[in-house]
Amino acid sequence: MNLWILTEERPKIEVLKQILNKFATDKQFCAFIDNLRILPVLENGKFSFTYELIGLRCNKVSKVFIKTVSGHSSFVDFLVFFQDKEPTIKDTPIYAIEETKTDDSESRNTGVYQRCSKFVFLHYYYPDVKMIMLYNLQVQQKKKPTQTNIFGTKLLVTLGVEILGKELDLDIFIPFYSIKELIDFKKKMRSAPKGNVPISIKQKDDKIEISGRLIKADSLSHDPNIGALSIISAVLRKLGWNKDLIITKHGLKPQHMKGNNKFILIANKLKIQLKGLVLPKAELYSDYWHYDKDGEKLGTIFVHIVVESFTKGYSIFENHAGSEKGYFITAKGDHIPLAKYSERAKYKAGNKDEIIHIPDLILIDFGRSGVINIEGKKYKFRQEGIKELENYDFIEKNYVKKYYPKFKVTRTVVLYGSKENKIIEIEVGFLLNEEGSLILGIKAPELFKEAIKNLLDFWK
Q1: What share of the chain is helix, strand, coil (3-state, %, to 5)?
Q2: What's the predicted TM-score (pTM) here?
Q3: How far apart are the C-alpha atoms of 271 and 242, rounded to whole Å?
């Protein structure tokens, strides 16, 4: 049978290797994994919108395929299927995997809470799937985990989520065995900074109240707390609480109650109440995922993969639409986060011009001493993409030129969509059209030309 990996993200070799190792271990298959490469599959010179992962030798697995999908509202990063034919929404995956590169050393909340709601959401579509939180750490793991991390991880394992990619003290990171133990653990944690609304849990005879702010930017969008309150509620239900669950101090108003919000959907399923508000009725989407045939990232991810698989070039930064933002990689191999604002104080004071515009992809071409800043867009928005190229001065001055001072920097647009078979705008370097045609621009970077030539030669 074939192994199918469906993802919203740009598939990373180091993550795919962990998935293959996990699969082979669980199935007790003899497998050799070496020199993994991702190959865009061409049919009659056109991209089939399927990638093949080569480098796995296992007599139980015919081929490994990767396809780009999109999910509704709160979707995990990977669904893995083991079957002959391409998966459909009626098929059941063997794994649902959420990947994060964030550790305690960077953020207490983002590293664990922000992704918790995805597993709660997932459960209603695939109640029996093996759930995995995969840490693809690119910075050193913090030696002593914070209480927030311990609490969040214990909630995950209580829900049935397996943790991969981190060293865990198995005497600490064990499931909660009772509602009282969970509440007592949370009560002993350090209080939130002054001015913040703490997450606290209070049990009474007929109800449990959980305080937590859900308002952000005048909407129900406080992702870390959405995750925290979702998984706390889900675990309380799993541990047997069948009475009222009430969220207090949330900061929301009636106008924020929109039925398609992921927390509203989860609250309906878990029968969570929001104090002082009427929760609108909301039903989950009928389909958890669908194949992506529309997103701009189809173009930038394709360019990213074909360059790294068929040239010596590679990415030093990625921010594909709808995917997790990567680190900037310096010439010494250090991974550093990009600043969000040129001057944070001015931005907080209301000056939105302080937001730093970042490309969707930055590629380095060592052979030609070049760096390519790439803006990705759908074909119909190509003029907006061309205009966006004007905004990269800050990123080039403070990052590219700082860490690669002798490299020539160029800017280009990569497009996806339409049935067009030519590009007239000189600022556009590459177009992947919806029929899978690979179209180079008039002034396409030499790295693009090399990558496409080698790809076509491979499939001849």
Answers
A1: 30, 25, 40
A2: 0.91
A3: 9
